[in-house]
Amino acid sequence: MLMKVSEEVLINKILSGDESAMRGLYDRYCGVLSTTCRRYITDEDDTKDVLQDAFIKIFNKLNTFEYRGEGSLLAWMTRVVVNEALKYLRDVSRRNIVSTTWELPDVSDQDDEPDDISSIPPETLLKLIQELPDGYRAVFNLYVFEQKSHKEIAQLLGINEASSASQYHRAKKTLKKRINELIKKHHNE
């Protein structure tokens, strides 16, 4: 029943103390927010912990949320989850972000896109992203999925802009190589 009500109605029910509405919100968005969290954190138990912390923050801060139309709640909750995931990466010192400045290699003669990504299932792509080193993965996710600039990423992660750009490039290069290996393997079978 609560799965079909609008975000605005769901928010109002939660703010009025309706515990079933809280469960409804969790049920409605847990899957998509879990996927968002897994883009940053590979360990399943850590993902669950971070997601739990994010939902606690969501419920505690929902009264500060400004509803701006259908979809705005999910966008806000996604930001909370991403921020909690980044906080986790910083707090537990699990990131592998190098804070030196690197020269970006000249990529003008390289293809940026893998041969045929359409043949790879989304679950496989997510797994490949999860296999990136922590720093590469964090920068890649923030740049691609959260559409942050390298300046914003640098501020969020406490690194410099050149490191963000370099790590993004290296993440893309690593993903491209792994995707092309999968495509080649698939064509040879």
TrEMBL record:
Domain RNA polymerase sigma factor 70 region 4 type: 125-175
Keywords: Sigma factor, Transcription, Transcription regulation
Protein name, entry field: RNA polymerase sigma-70 factor, ECF subfamily
Domain RNA polymerase sigma-70 region: 25-94
BP terms from Gene Ontology: DNA-templated transcription initiation
Organism of derivation: Porphyromonas cangingivalis
NCBIfam families for the chain: sigma70-ECF (TIGR02937)
Family designation: Belongs to the sigma-70 factor family. ECF subfamily.
GO molecular function: DNA binding; sigma factor activity
Signal peptide residue numbers: none
